[in-house]
Structure formats: C-alpha cells, structure tokens
Amino acid sequence: QVQLVESGGGLVQAGGSLRLSCTASGLTFNQYTIAWFRQAPGKEREFVASHVHKDGSSYYADSVKGRFTISRDIAKNTVHLQMNNLTVEDAAVYYCTALSDYDTYWGQGTQVTVSS
After folding, report:
1. Distance (Å, rounded) from C-alpha 56 to C-alpha 72?
2. 6: which of 87, 102, 105, 110 fits an S-S bond (Cβ 3.0–4.6 Å)?
3. Long-range CB contact pairs, 41-50, < 8 A, 24+
4. Which residues are CB-neighbours of 89 under 8 A, at least 6 positions away?
5. CA atoms of 36 and 113, how far apart (whole Å)
C-alpha cells in the first residue's frame, strides 16, 4: 500500500520559515518525481515545486522562487520543502504527490498558517 505522509506544517509569523516533509512508503522512491501543491480556501490547487527523479532537477512556481527549496533524501524516502520568508499568501494546505509514467499518489496534506 502506497502512503505519502506530510509533516511540518503549522503556524508561523510572516517572514518566518517552515520545513515541510513528505515521507513515502510502498513505492520505489527514486522512480518517482515528487511535487508539492497547495490549496488555499476558495482557490484551486496550485503547483509549488517539484523534484524530478530522472535527472535531479527542481522546478518552482514563480511565486515561491528564491524563497522555497525542494530537496530529496533518498535514504529516508523523504522530500523536504524548505520555505523561507513566508507571507500570508503562502497560507494553504500543502500536499505532496508522487508521479511516475504510470501512476500518481497524493498525501493527505499539512496545514500552513501564516499570521501577519
């Protein structure tokens, strides 16, 4: 059974930092691209960042470039999203997803709240 478990969300003041983690089980971790999406109340789910398993490249939404960093710890089957200089616009439920050519899996999400 495949599981993606997000952690690290919480309440932070604007300008602060959080590190989210996504730990995978039940799949061959290094055969999946791992991405983070987020969804704020009343808004559509949007792409945040991704780490491609094939070549190790990373991609970011324009809104988070220079502030967020995605990284992969293969030994721990975990992808981290380091989020710095958070703003109220970053507040959302953050979801990680594992994608391959054949299937896609989603975690349950972790809440990020940013106070002004």
Report:
1. 9
2. 110
3. 43/92, 45/95, 48/81, 48/94, 49/81
4. 63
5. 16
| Exposure b/e, 14-39, CB count within 10 A at least 16 = b | eeeebebbbbbeebebeebbbbbbbe
What DSSP string runs through 20-82? EEEEEESS-GGGSEEEEEEE-TTS--EEEEEE-TTT--EEE-TTTTTTEEEEEEGGGTEEEEE
Q: Could you read off the pLDDT of 15-67 as tens digits, one per residue? A: 999 999 999 999 988 899 999 999 999 999 999 999 999 999 999 999 999 99
CB 40 within 8 A of CB 17: no
